[in-house]
Amino acid sequence: MLLLPHMAVLVGRLLADPAVPTRAKVVLGATAAYLANPIDLIPDFIPFVGYLDDVIVVAIILDGLLNHLDRDLLLRHWPGDPQALEKSAAVARRLAAWVPSGIKAKVFGARRAA
Q: Which of 3, 31, 58, 96 could form a disulfide with 63 if both were Cys (CB 3.0 to 4.6 A apart)?
């Protein structure tokens, strides 16, 4: 939950940056719309579990961004400590590990060269 303010700033900055691919902007916009929508896969009024779908969606998107966008671009827009982004990336990678890479590739496009 402490990550959400930084994620909101990151998303806003990425959406405004012309260097960010259109596909990534569409994914970010759709994610923001899903998170803002009161209708979820798991209703938010259910304690703890209600936010689980939101956390998983954010983890999948963060993991996808880190794998498909240039790290320097992300760090340029990240409002917090770069190590916080790296720690968040590690958590996101573990949460998103169950999502097949083919699905992420369809969402984000081709994986960036390492």
A: 96
Cα separation, 37 vs 61, in Å, equals 17
Reported pTM: 0.75
pLDDT average, residue stretch 13-39 = 88
Are 72 and 112 a contacting pair, CB within 8 Å? no
Work out how many domains the chain is built from and give that number: 1
Mean pLDDT of the region 15-19: 93
42 lies in some domain = yes
**SS3 assignment, position 37:** coil
DSSP state at residue 70: -
Is residue 56 situated within a structural domain? yes
pLDDT of residue 17: 94
56-104 residue pLDDT tens: 788 888 888 888 888 899 999 999 889 988 888 888 888 888 777 777 7
Residue 73 belongs to some domain of the structure = yes
